[in-house]
Amino acid sequence: MSNKSFLKWLDEYHERTDLNQLDYSIMTTLINRHFTGVPNTIPIFLDNTLEHEQRRTQNFVQPRFDSYHLWQQSHEIFNPFAPLPTNIIPPETPLEKIEIHSNIETINDLITIINENPYNEKAEYNIDLKTLHKIKPELVQLNDMIGLVNLKKSILDQLLYFVQNLCANDFKHTVLLGPPGTGKTEVAKIIGKMYSKIGILKNDVFKKVTRNDLIAGYLGQTAIKTRKVIDECLGGVLFIDEAYSLASAGDLNDSYSKECIDILCEALSDHKSDLMVIIAGYEDELNETFFRVNKGMQSRFVWRFKMEPYSANDMMNIFNKLVTEQSWSLNSDTVNERWFEDKKANFVYFGRDMELLVTYTKIAHSRRIYGKDPSLRKIIISDDMNKGYETFLKNKKEKKDQHYLYGIYV
């Protein structure tokens, strides 16, 4: 029986509505014999004529399992007695084994592995390449952040530990140590996104809170407020910026602060498998306040990442990056490291101050080019930067460093 005739026979048999156990037994036998090439000896299907024998010999071709498998799928076959046929199993194609060896020292090394090794479902790898491909956008985003060399190495250690499923029953809670304006919020978001993609966290929840979101004005209400925030973050990340503000170094017996921090400490253990708490702030201030109120906090934050203050060169690169991302450009002789080095002492909020400087520089530029040749638009020159810096200093003095334009550098 040829494949074509075989499928035609299946179609005719499939249209019958009075099949019984014997019918299914006959069908199974015929299907098995079709694939093995054994002659049909079932009396009701015999045709011993010479014409039939010649036709059977001429039409017989190597049976194909995929033709029957596709027929089953197209007809959505369901057998109330048993699967048909039970002893016909397609040969398994062995997975290609691919060994990827690389000395991982930086985030960029991981990105290189991803770029050089497209993921193939039919291959077996010695590393979890599929997961690495999932988090490539976050790895690139982290790698593209200016500076932060030591921080990136620390996050790499954490990632390699988590991605190999070696972190069962371990705390994931993390401390980002460093001054304002070094990108702590952005780093926390990247961490949360990565770990939700690799399954360490169940969802993509990220909630940033401060003291006002956790502590109420009445004793007892703080507990309710804090627990509500924790419940909203289960399965994701709770990011507490300036965590030292939850307690006062001068009054460690503040009942409101203690109530909040005690509940947080309890939640860190109760939800260690489905919650990641990231706190940020200066190291000394956190040690004198947040960690002093409840001694159990120290042991629950096992991951501590230090974010170094930006150098003059880093701030120059941040400024250039912000300008480029906004589709503006810089005159070739406008920006140099010496300009930023001379003014570094006034940029105490680093990246945040660069965002302000870009804004004030653009404002100065708009004043300079008003009514002039349109070709001058959005090309910043040194005069724009100097005027922008003057505005920056003026507003800094008037606002007493209370910046109100925020971006990723917080």
TrEMBL record:
SMART domains: AAA. SUPFAM superfamilies: P-loop containing nucleoside triphosphate hydrolases. InterPro entries: AAA+_ATPase, ATPase_AAA_core, CbxX/CfxQ_RuBisCO_ESX, P-loop_NTPase. One of its GO terms (molecular function) is ATP binding. Residues 170-291 form the AAA+ ATPase domain. This is AAA+ ATPase domain-containing protein. It comes from viral metagenome.
